[in-house]
Amino acid sequence: MTEEIWTGVKCTNRLGRVVCVIMLPVLLAVNLSGCGAKEYTFAYDRNRNNSSFSVASYEQGKTMETFASKLCVAAGDVIKGTDVDMSEAGAAGLFDISSSKVIYAKNVHAKLNPASLTKILTALCALKYGNLDDMLTASENVYIKESGAVKLGIEAGDTMTMDQALHALLLKSSNDVAIMIAEHISGSVEGFAQLMNDTANSLGATNSHFTNPHGLTDPEHYTTAYDLYLISNEAMKYDKFLELIHTATYTSTYRDRNNNEKSIDIQNSNAYIKGEAFAPENVTVIGGKTGTTSAAGNCLILYSRDKSGNPYIAIVMQSKDKTVMYTEMTDLLSEIS
After folding, report:
1. Is residue 297 classed as helix, strand or coil in its secondary structure?
2. How far apart are CA 329 and CA 301, in angstroms?
3. Between 105 and which of 78, 116, 225, 230 could a Cys-Cys bridge form, CB atoms 3.0 to 4.6 Å apart?
């Protein structure tokens, strides 16, 4: 272990013989029992594929809570004991949050285009660094010309609150609103993309790189099913996020540059929330996020609970069409017992 790894540690206790088993090189902040709330910072290389570590001080008989101690960890595919047909999905995963168990995993570390699943990270950054009553103003950059891109239809000079913007972002998947959120938080899309990457890396999502807040196709914009689990797991700690993804319909009004009212009347794009897709009887779908582009295929993340209230995150990426995606997701949810 090099000196540099422990740079910034001010704990007065001296570590004696320390054994480090490094399984994922990420930036970590952990507390050592007996040292107060001091942070230990570990260097990492985002190009490596490993994903957690543990540290123990045998001399003092003390342990350090590992970064992944409360996370589901998957080194590769996990299919043993399951009866799931995910043959049409490019990647998929089912994660038991309470027990930190990976129930199912297929290609969860493959770098794929996430489409609008990106907006989970956008919402997380907005909730973490903004306020719901912030007033956002649209710039000329909200005019998205990509064919088929979902838009609310905002124009330069339009204003709305962060709360309204987040509804449009997560329910309708509005790409123009994603731009407005990014510029409000960071001043530019480029600055917000850096914030997204920094936030993802801090969660251990080091096999990802984000270039925009909406997920429209870019060769340098990619993530993995496992990284999306890590990001979603953090976002779902926010009650407001859970409220948003559980909302079926939303109506409101915002203002144009001349202070005239403009209406928002949107419906959740998630078929489980709309009552068009149905989970197994023992599973309650709280909400999630859809994503679709020609490059990404059809993608879906769900946050669900079993009959005892235990939470799960389920992910399906790169399905060939929506019908197959929802069929495979329901099949995946059937593994929740």
Report:
1. strand
2. 9
3. 78
